[in-house]
Amino acid sequence: MTDDDQTTDDDRAVILVSGGMDSATAVYEAMDRGYEPYFFHTSYGQETETKERECAEALAEEVDAADFCHVETRHLAAIGASSLTDAEMDVADADLDSEEVPTSYVPFRNANLLSMATSYAEATDCSAVFIGAHSEDFSGYPDCRPDFFDAFQRVIDVGTKPETEIELVAPFVEWSKTDIAERGLELGVPYDITWSCYREEAPACGTCDACAFRLQAFQRAGVEDPIDYAERPDY
After folding, report:
1. pLDDT given at position 7
2. Which band of pLDDT confidence, cut at 50, 70 and 90, is reported for residue 83?
3. Who contacts 46 (Cβ-Cβ below 8 Å, separation ≥6)?
4. pLDDT for 37-77, tens place per residue?
5. What is the model's pTM?
6. Is residue 117 a contact partner of residue 18, using CB atoms and an 8 Å limit?
7. Is 24 known to sit in a ligand binding site?
8. Does the annotation place 20 within a ligand binding site?
9. Is the pLDDT reported for residue 8 higher than 60?
10. Which Gene3D superfamilies match (predicted)?
11. Were both Cys, which of 15, 95, 126, 195 would link to 121 (CB 3.0–4.6 Å)?
12. Alpha-carbon distance 129 to 12, whole Å?
């Protein structure tokens, strides 16, 4: 796609879009802040990669994204050690009170994804990279912590061209999933075309960690989650 002649470097942002509710909300948050969205989506061998890509593409069409960059990152599946990419590991049922690193953790995934997103941002003269990570992620995922993003900002600063200025933005890093749902509802995020389930491509299982946190967020926000579930427990 071609750039609008009136668009400036300062109002374009690469957004890591997984197809889930957090990244979809990050898209709308970036747009609300005045950025033109450049979508960056990866398939890394996760169980629901086809559904996730479909949702990311549908969202890109919905918001008329400036570009959609899809990258295959099969090395993460080859490395393994995650229930999202290893068929011999079961996706565990939800344990919302656990502070242990879950089996769904993909080793150092966000560093891999942010590195590629930064490459994409530098190549397209974007001035920001948005990621939808939040506080309930970093209780269990070490690469979702504020300290990690602060450190990665320094990596961006020293690892790009001298004239390149890219801000790493994690707008929800101190927010709960409920906060994100409420913000997204305020912004009009089409949650019916997002997907969070770790296990299934249709319907969502309702009992994995991702489903549980999502359902809990909608329940606390007082709104019914618009996607289909095999089970809808009260969280």
Report:
1. 43
2. confident
3. 52, 77, 84, 85, 198
4. 999 999 998 989 999 999 999 999 999 999 999 999 889 98
5. 0.91
6. no
7. yes
8. yes
9. no
10. HUPs
11. 126
12. 9
End-to-end CA distance of the chain: 43
Residue in 230, 38, 193, 173 with CA at minimum distance from that of residue 119: 38
Q: Which domains does the chain have, with CATH numbers?
A: 9-196 (3.40.50.620)
Residue 63, Cβ neighbours under 10 Å: how many?
A: 18
Per-residue pLDDT at 109 exceeds 50? yes
Residue type, 12: R
Quote the pLDDT of residue 5: 37
Residue 86 counted as an annotated binding residue:
no
DSSP assignment of 96-140:
TT--SPPTT--TTHHHHHHHHHHHHHHHTT-SEEE----HHHHTT
pLDDT of residue 135 exceeding 80: no
158 is in an annotated binding site: no
The annotation status of 197 as a binding-site residue, yes or no, is yes
Is 135 labelled as part of a ligand binding site? no
**1 is known to lie in a ligand binding site:** no
Say how many CA atoms lie within 13 Å of 189 toward its Cβ.
28
Q: What is the pLDDT of residue 98?
A: 77
Q: Which helix (H) or strand (E) holds 40?
A: strand 36-43
Q: Is 95 annotated as a binding residue?
A: no
Dist. CA 23–CA 83, nearest whole Å: 21
For residue 234, say whether it is annotated as part of any ligand binding site: no
The candidate with the shortest Cα–Cα distance to 128, out of 2, 26, 5, is 26
Structure tokens that stand for 173 in this block: 């890093």
- The reply to whether 205 sits in an annotated binding site is yes
Among 107, 112, 113, 101, which Cα is nearest to 86's?
107
211 is annotated as contributing to ligand binding: yes
Q: Which residue has the tokens 């560093």?
A: 111
